[in-house]
């Protein structure tokens, strides 16, 4: 199965989730996340402003602030690269060309080495931590030389046995699902 086919099938499965099922899975996954050493030790956490079918990241952002952690959000740049910008309730946001909410272009980026943990989004995830993203390659490029912790929060509908790995695919270090927290690298 191609990555494009995997994307299509996973999106269909995610759309079939009821609001109740989604909330139940989110609660279990977030409870697991907040118990990890990676979360507890992180001072700067990178996440996204989730889209409707993705796991709601607002509770992650609020819990981080509550615990005195900094939150950084991605900002797409030219040549399919991205950086991360500190996010507070006062941060001016813009809508990207992809329709995503991201920090304003004028704000300074946080050095990659300062980010302790990146919560990496994706559509589908293999047992070995490889992911099928949304197709832009932004996270693969960012993670290529990132040395901090990587975590993905995975609905049951996003788990796949395997797929063809390409040279630029970067495995995620920790996959958190409803039923397990799995170290993959």
Automatic annotation (TrEMBL):
It catalyses: (6S)-5-formyl-5,6,7,8-tetrahydrofolate + ATP = (6R)-5,10-methenyltetrahydrofolate + ADP + phosphate. Its EC number is 6.3.3.2. It comes from Carnobacterium antarcticum. Its cofactor is Mg(2+). Belongs to the 5-formyltetrahydrofolate cyclo-ligase family. It comes from the Bacteria. This is 5-formyltetrahydrofolate cyclo-ligase. InterPro entries: FTHF_cligase (IPR002698), FTHF_cligase-like_sf (IPR024185), NagB/RpiA_transferase-like (IPR037171). It is an enzyme of class 6 (ligase). Pfam families: 5-FTHF_cyc-lig. The keyword Protein transport does not apply. The keyword ATP-binding applies. Keywords: ATP-binding, Ligase, Magnesium, Metal-binding, Nucleotide-binding. One of its GO terms (molecular function) is 5-formyltetrahydrofolate cyclo-ligase activity.
């Amino acid at each position: 199965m191609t990555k494009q086919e995997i994307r299509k099938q996973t999106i269909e499965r995610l759309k079939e989730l009821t609001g109740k099922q989604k909330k139940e899975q989110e609660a279990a996954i977030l409870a697991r996340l907040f118990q990890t050493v990676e979360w507890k030790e992180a001072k700067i956490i990178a996440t996204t402003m989730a889209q409707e079918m993705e796991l709601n990241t607002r509770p992650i952002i609020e819990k981080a602030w509550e615990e005195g952690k900094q939150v950084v959000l991605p900002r797409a740049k030219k040549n399919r690269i991205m950086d991360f910008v500190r996010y507070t309730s006062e941060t001016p946001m813009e809508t990207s060309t992809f329709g995503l909410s991201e920090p304003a272009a004028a704000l300074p980026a946080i050095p990659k080495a300062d980010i302790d943990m990146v919560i990496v989004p994706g559509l589908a995830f293999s047992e070995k931590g490889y992911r099928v993203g949304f197709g832009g390659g932004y996270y693969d490029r960012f993670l290529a030389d990132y040395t901090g912790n990587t975590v993905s929060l995975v609905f049951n509908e996003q788990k796949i046995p395997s797929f063809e790995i390409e040279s630029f695919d970067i495995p995620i270090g920790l996959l958190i699902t409803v039923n397990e927290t799995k170290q993959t690298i």
